[in-house]
Design goal:
This protein is mainly alpha-helical. It has one domain. 74% of the residues lie in helices and 5% in strands. Keywords: Membrane, Transmembrane, Transmembrane helix.
Length: 232
Amino acid sequence: MFFFSGYPLLDLSILAAFGLSIWAQFKVQGNYRKWSKVAASSGITGAQAARHLLDRNGLYDVPVEPVRGTLSDHYDPIHRVVRLSENVYYGNSIASISVASHEVGHAIQHKEQYSMLVLRHRIFPILNFTSGLAPLLLIGGFLFRWAELIGLGIVFFATVVAFQLITLPVEFNASSRAKDLMVAEGFIRNTEEHGVNKVLGAAALTYVAAALMAALELLRYVFIFIGMRNDD
């Protein structure tokens, strides 16, 4: 959904952020493919790395399960399960170990009640409600020139932006934990850290791009709303 705000610099910034998001997706896929072909010197698989790190952090009751798909890896905080795509689960590449360690980073955050993760979990039920209604409210407000409806849509969309912004420290922290753990446990050598940084750095860029685009879109809606109120 794209409505020009009447502020060329803002509209151009949003288009640039959208371009960054597309480029970040290509970077993620490209780096993942590249470093999936490079075996880690330790020879362990993503599943073994995840299991080892979970046990080292007292998370013996958190299972590691394979899941279909590519880059479908995630930590499920509801069922407390680390799920790894089959390539990561069975693979012994630098990419596999990096992704697996990152997901374990989320499990450790959960155990330690990392503040930003707790906040993200609390806002998620609200997001499920507001994210679906926000586009409908905004579209309806623009079509019928109803400023109050746009205002409500902006409030709802703000929760989406808040969620995106909260996600940034959660993801960066998980990657930082992953790197430290991988080095401490001898999963990678110093010469292999470059590959780890490429894999996890590209993934982090996608979250930055998404947050930036969402924040700029929110700003655009606010400007349009103010313009409509002034016209009235």
